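subagent[fold] <- orchestrator: predict structure for attached chain, return tokens only, no commentary.
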Amino acid sequence: MSETITPPLALHGWYMLTQFADLTLSSGEDQAEERGRRLDALGAVLAGWEDLGDDGWSGLYRLVGGGSDYMLLHLRPSLDLLGEAERAMRLHPSSQDLAITSDYVSVVELGLYGHTLGLARRAERDGVEIGSDEWAVLVEEFLAEQLETPYTQRRLYPRQPDGMPYVCFYPMNKRRNVEQNWYTQTLAERARLMQEHGHTGRGYAGKVSQIITGSIGLDDWEWAVTLFAPDPIEFKNLVTEMRYDEVTSVYGEFGSFWVGHRIFGEAIAGEFRGA
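subagent[fold] -> orchestrator:
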């Protein structure tokens, strides 16, 4: 069964909406005052969303380069609640002052390549066929066990780590070329490559924290990666080192990268006013 071409099992947590926005210019002193009041009100909304407990959180980031002024991250328990946050932003009076220019929809994903391989080998040993009713029972029991672990809970419902105000966001795909097709590799081969990839990432524990979100069927790319760090040079270090992993060098395709710095609740109003 390790030679089977089958998707890895995965667990899913909060949905995430990544928005990019531009701050417009005021056209006069009177209008500037009205604009300031609208943006102050928006700042209060965003500050109130920074910690919604089990209902997620939102964060505002000032971008450097990338063609946009700001990036917003919204994490919510369901797509519907994510849509409510999006609607609240679009209908807010300040939408004429902070214009959303593009966005990206995904869901926090914990891919279980190695675990899936182990479960498949166990099923093979016990004479259970992948896709059968017996296999479905094994999967259901295994996923239920995984959901109970603190590690899984932290991965599925992530917070921005303290002391890591810098952010890097980018979408990515796995190649589907004739000679470089990730999806025609066996489960055993994909698990091997992802284990190597994960080993590189673990070398940056304490330097970089990540949120991996899946977007197959939700947006144009297959995954999005959101990194946090105390020093932005760590983004360059990590991404460079991972380029040498086989899973990236052979199968990785990347979209644009955006980097910036988080603006926290009490500073948002002053940020929008240029203070």
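orchestrator: received. Logging for downstream: The first strand starts at residue 9 and ends at 23. The mean pLDDT is 94.
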